[in-house]
Design goal:
heterodimer
């Protein structure tokens, strides 16, 4: 028979196991570094275990653990603020890849029968996960963090606002802008690698 | 009956609509336009699909077994 301590640990580990993949994927985008991501997840697991008594059983463990992970990340960021790559502040329109693809189609640059949507989706499909990750990593931090939470966790604007301690309007703006900047970056990667139909590098 | 929103107005709501963060009245107006406009409907569908495919590609990461083991060992020591 398990002792109460072993029982609590088994319960905790049972809840933690299914959320670790997504937590680690999120941590990799937050820290932009696999070793730091591992440290962050490890620290969050330890903090979560130590605070397990505060977890309301039956509530959303994944969200609770993510909050602990985010707090640990934000805490460490306050100590070691990394430099962000310079990014143009010019407004990038939404649905960037589609707009570029439609321009190509209108300019008769792509094979017949392919519409702008096909070109945009087909181009994205040729990109490797690592290329998408690298593009997210090059975003300024506020957009990178919002994008990581958007793409890797199923969170509302309100959830993200609560995690980051910022207004919902700011979340909205960072997500929209972040996605536009990401699409712009992905389109450029695709162009550079000759992956866009009708466009040679 | 002419939809309440133009294509440009509808497209301005794209991100909020895909995030399910539009107010009910605006959602209704967007959906009314999408039902009437095949071009916008197609573009919204492509945008949704683009974001889903990015999400799917990023989700393929697995936590290393070494990290799982390290965490288990740390918890056992607590």
């Amino acid at each position: 028979m398990l002792s109460p301590v072993d029982d609590a640990r088994a319960t905790f580990e049972g809840l933690l196991a299914p959320v670790l993949d997504r937590a680690y994927a999120t941590a990799r985008r937050l820290t932009r570094n696999d070793a730091d991501a591992e440290d962050l997840v490890q620290e969050a697991a330890l903090l979560a275990y130590r605070g397990f008594k505060t977890f309301r059983h039956g509530s959303n463990f994944a969200a609770w653990f993510l909050r602990i992970l985010m707090n640990a990340f934000l805490s460490s960021r306050r100590k070691h603020r990394a430099e962000d790559a310079a990014v143009s502040l010019d407004d990038v329109p939404n649905a960037y890849m589609q707009r570029q693809a439609h321009e190509l189609v209108r300019g008769d640059a792509v094979p017949d029968g392919l519409g702008g949507g096909d070109v945009a989706l087909g181009t994205l499909d040729k990109l490797e996960r690592e290329q998408i990750e690298a593009a997210i990593d090059r975003l300024p931090e506020e957009f990178r963090v919002a994008s990581a939470l958007y793409f890797l966790q199923d969170l509302s604007y309100q959830d993200i606002a609560g995690m980051l301690g910022i207004p919902i309007g700011t979340v909205r703006s960072r997500l929209h802008r972040g996605r536009a900047l990401l699409q712009q970056a992905l389109w450029q990667v695709a162009l550079d690698n000759g992956l866009v139909p009708g466009k040679q590098p | 009956m002419k939809p309440r929103l133009s294509c440009a107005e509808t497209f301005r709501h794209l991100d909020d609509y895909l995030d399910r963060e539009l107010a009910a009245a605006d959602t209704e107006a967007v959906e009314e336009h999408l039902q009437a406009c095949a071009d916008c409907s197609g573009e919204f569908a492509v945008e949704r699909e683009l974001l889903e495919r990015i999400r799917a590609k990023l989700a393929g990461v697995k936590v290393p077994d070494t990290l799982r083991a390290r965490i288990a060992a740390l918890l056992a020591r607590e």
